[in-house]
Structures are given as structure tokens and as C-alpha cells.
Amino acid sequence: MQRFLLPSEKAFRVFEACASKNSFTAAAEALGITQSAASQQIKQLEQRLGVRLFRKEGRGVVLTPAGHSILKAQRNAFESLWQAIENTREQEESLEVTLQVLPGFCVRWLLPRLSNFSRKHPEVDVTIVTDAGSSSFENSFADLTISYDMSRASGWLAQEALFPVASPAFAARHGLAGISSDALLAKLPELPLLGDTSTLISDTWRQWAGQYDTSISVGELRRFPQSNMSLLLAEHGQGIAMGRSFLVLDALVSGTLVELEGLRVQSAAGYTLRHNPDRIYSRGCKLFEQWLVNRVTKDLQCCQVV
Fold it and tell me: Which of these, 28, 70, 111, 191, has the minimum number of CB atoms within 10 Å of its CB?
């Protein structure tokens, strides 16, 4: 079917008024235009659509069958349009936010700080969905996602440092506290090393080891599905894990983990906050993003001094 440009909204408004009043004159008065202007609008609309919309009846006009059909379609179309506009406005003002985030970052950084956001913005309802397998929005109802990306072009919230960590008891038992970085590198291959298998970007142990002259065999690490698992085992004295600044910040502050000092490298990846392009960027999303950026900036400073 051949398509053509629809007539103007003004023409449809005159059509609606004439149909409601059954009179060009009464419609013109209601719209604040002349009767001839209203009549001309209807004539042009009929020419444009290629159908007759009205027929005379007495001193007024009534809709033809075609006119009835088009009026019904017009009302439905405008009702759908206004409903879409109203829905968009409601979504823009929505204070419900669904956040998709990696499990390790969620458990070890976000959840302990979420109460701070709730105190600042009790009106915002945040629902968290963890996803270890993807940072995309494919088949996702999330409004925002916090992903871990290699590309700086995506606009990192923060870049982490990588460094080995262990429990204080493990470090003391194996004589790791206060020794030189060279002595530490020599000891590491003899100790249980804990890694994870779910790193989407790169192997953090391999990335770290590539910066040092070490005989560590990253293929022989004890690996677990998620980074928060290897870090939890390290906290329980089961070995040495590769720390990432944000994932171990709280543990370093509380003392459940200690950094094996002198062996920091910059991670090749960083955290990125993305908005789902298929969903409205709501007021709730804006408030959460503002809080997240401020909190990450604050904690990034802590990471550098801990």
C-alpha cells in the first residue's frame, strides 16, 4: 500500500471539532477561526485523503461512513499518542531503578554502601540483578549496568590497581610481612595462590605476573567461579589472592586482608556505568549515577592511601 504524508495536526483538530459540533460554523467558533477557514481545512483534508468526510443534513453536516471510520482511527491514534507521552513523563520521573552488576563488585563494594544511598535518597527503590556472564543489555530489563571494561573510550568510573593479598595470619605464618618485594616474588611460587575463572576481561594473575620477573605458573592456580570466592578464601587463610582495589578496600580497612606491599600494578580494565538505550533515563537513574560517581571518587582516594 502506498504511503503518503499525513495532513497537519491542525487539519485533524478542525475535523474533530466539525464532527463533534455537526456544524462548520459552530466548530469554527469553538476554535476561534472563521467558518470559511474551517470549511477550507475540511476541503483540503478530503482532497488529501481522497475520501468525502461529511455530507450536508439540514443546516448542519454529518459524517459519512468514511468519516466515521477515520474519526475513530484518529481518536485512537491520538489517545495512543497521549498515552505514550504520559507514560514517557511517568518513566522520566520514575524513582525505581534496576541495576545490573557483576557479583564480585556487588558483594564486596556495592552492597555495603547501598544503605548510604538509601539514607540520602529514601525515595529511590533500587533493584539489583547480578550477571557474571555479560555486561550487555541484551534481553535485559535493567536501567543501568556497571561493567568491567578494557576500553577507556567507554568512560571509566575508576581504574583499579592489582596486588596480592592474604590474611594477616597467613602472612605471618609464611614470613611475608615486612620483606622486600624481591624476596616476596621468590616466595610466591611456593605458596597456594587463589584465582578465579569468571574474569571476562583478562586473567588478573597473568596480567599482574607479566609486570614482574617471577616463576609463578598461572596455570597451576586454584581457581574458583568468582573473584569474591577467592578473596573470601584468602580472608580465611587459605592462600594468596589477587586483590583489585575496590574489591578488597573494605577488607584492608577492617584488617581481614593485608596487602603484600611493593607489588602494585595498574589494571588494564576499569568500571563503567552504562544506561540501557532501550529504557528512559529516569530521575531515579540520575540520582543513583550522581551518588555512584561521588562515592567511587571518594573510595578511589581511599584505595590510594590504604
Answer: 111
What's the CATH class of domain 9-92? mainly alpha
Q: Which positions ≥6 away from 269 have C-beta within 8 Å?
A: 148, 149, 150, 159, 160, 201, 202
Fold entry, domain 96-156+271-305: D-Maltodextrin-Binding Protein; domain 2 (3.40.190)
Tell me the C-alpha distance between 260 and 243, whole Å: 10
Under 8 Å between Cβ of 244 and 267: yes
Tell me the longest C-alpha to C-alpha distance in the chain: 106
CA 271 remoteness from chain centre = 12
Q: Identical fold at 9-92 and 96-156+271-305? A: no
Contact call for residues 61 and 54 (beta carbons, < 8 A): yes
Q: Please write the tens of the pLDDT for every residue from 84-142.
A: 888 888 888 899 999 999 888 999 999 999 999 999 999 999 999 987 655 566 657 89
Ramachandran assignment for 130, one of left (phi > 0), alpha (psi -120 to 50 degrees), beta (any other): beta
pTM: 0.74
